[in-house]
Prior knowledge:
By secondary structure, this protein is of the alpha/beta class. The chain contains 13 helices and twelve strands.
Amino acid sequence: xxxxxxxxxxxxxxxxxxxxxxxxxxxxxxxxxxxxxxxxxxxxxxxxxxxxxxxxxxxxxxxxxxxxxxxxxxxxxxxxxxxxxxxxxxxxxxxxxxxxxxxxxxxxxxxxxxxxxxxxxxxxxxxxxxxxxxxxxxxxxxxxxxxxxxxxxxxxxxxxxxxxxxxxxxxxxxxxxxxxxxxxxxxxxxxxxxxxxxxxxxxxxxxxxxxxxxxxxxxxxxxxxxxxxxxxxxxxxxxxxxxxxxxxxxxxxxxxxxxxxxxxxxxxxxxxxxxxxxxxxxxxxxxxxxxxxxxxxxxxxxxxxxxxxxxxxxxxxxxxxxxxxxxxxxxxxxxxxxxxxxxxxxxxxxxxxxxxxxxxxxxxxxxxxxxxxxxxxxxxxxxxx
Length: 385
Ligand SMILES: Cc1ncc(COP(=O)(O)O)c(C=O)c1O
């Protein structure tokens, strides 16, 4: 040991850094990216956008990212039109990925002597970000009275009352399980968590099944409610690193206390604006991805596996005798999926039709040995594999 370990904060000693494998394999379905490359016309616009700011890189960027906030507010207002939501630029905040936005929230409202509550399994960065700011994480439970991964209103409220957190993380659609949360649960949690900032992480909102309203519809009159979003998923912009949130302007204002100066670079602001100008084109793949997701759910069921219904661009599936072995068997066939640490389950991203074909073909091949004995069901229909 170099001695550094002894100098490290005690709570970080022996901790493994977060990170999904980045293997160079033909079919990468492990981090819920959008598999479609950025379309050529958007590539051109992004190139122009970078060129336009290049000469001014001697100056710091607009620390208030004014144009970007206006564009994000317009995007949220526009895409929520069915539900009559208006989001103003003052309600919007952004960061280098929604992870940074989540970190700003924890830095401002968490910290030593404060607690954050989430409902496991959910997005694993919620506890990590909370912990890195010294916030005590409370691992709440799902599946108390509903389906295995459901979060019922009664259970969520009871856990909030028990722990009296300063921050509550809800994730809808939930990663890794895929299902969206009813707004009645969000409303009840908000009412019960009287002193908490309630964060609804909607990273996958654009993939939700029809009729699934966003928690944006609940913002009015709820000054402690926050909805986080990202351009990393539906927008096919994970490499651009742009996440954002909508909340009450006073809450947004508080985040200025913890952000680093000029945290959004001029190229980041410029390319995100270019992408937002092409929102329709970038989001054009959402429907085909949803089709692949539903196809995965259908075909895995036929194979005798147990997929969880999904509102996201991924599917969690169970019924495996040894999920680590199945993960390796898929990798041997050139398909990388995610072992999220839930015994007998794996998570697969819905990619292009060709990637879905490759995943389903590999699963069909290994299913006879992968499926836990009690879960074996007759495979009657293999069309579309
Ligand atoms: C639920 C959820 N929230 C937030 C993120 C962070 O995404 P990004 O930092 O790329 O915006 C992810 C990424 O996988 C996610 O699954």
